[in-house]
Design a protein that fits this description.
With 130 residues, this protein is α+β, with helices and mostly antiparallel strands. The chain is built from 2 helices and 4 strands; from the N terminus they run αββββα. The chain has one domain. Helix content is 39%, strand content 19%. It has a 4-stranded antiparallel beta sheet with strand order 1-2-3-4, covered by helices on one side. The longest helix has 29 residues.
Length: 130
């Protein structure tokens, strides 16, 4: 049946499959993120709870550090150094800026899969051993 289907129909079917897969993976991420309490601190920082997500072999050049936060959403993280203000200030302060990412399914799925694997690993490490 599919071998005789119109190519545009098949593409529409593939697009719908990708969308459904992305939505299902988002549900899995939400379930895992809700169970990860407390959510880990990012790189030892106490001001940001997030998990870095690195989909091996799939990192668009224009995208920086991607993290998953407690809300099970992906964000691009930018860490900026801010010079001290005033005569009594010393050292540099660090400010983290999060920009929520909107990704089409073909980009979302590799990030979601990498995040699911990492959250499952973290949860498994917390579970009591029998």
């Amino acid at each position: 049946m599919m071998e005789r289907a119109d190519p545009l129909t098949l593409r529409t079917l593939a697009d719908a499959t990708m969308q459904r897969t992305a939505e299902e993976m988002q549900g899995i991420l939400q379930a895992l993120a809700a169970r990860l309490d407390p959510f880990p601190n990012f790189a030892g920082m106490t001001t940001l709870q997030a998990v870095e997500v690195d989909p091996e072999g799939f990192i668009p050049k224009e995208r920086g550090c991607v993290v998953l936060c407690q809300d099970a959403e992906f964000y691009e993280l930018a860490l900026k150094l801010v010079p001290p203000v005033g005569e009594f200030a010393d050292g540099m302060d660090q400010v983290d800026e999060l920009k929520q990412l909107e990704m089409p399914p073909h980009e979302y799925i590799p990030y979601a899969y990498a995040a699911i694997r990492e959250l499952a690993r973290l949860l498994h490490g917390r579970s009591p051993r029998a």
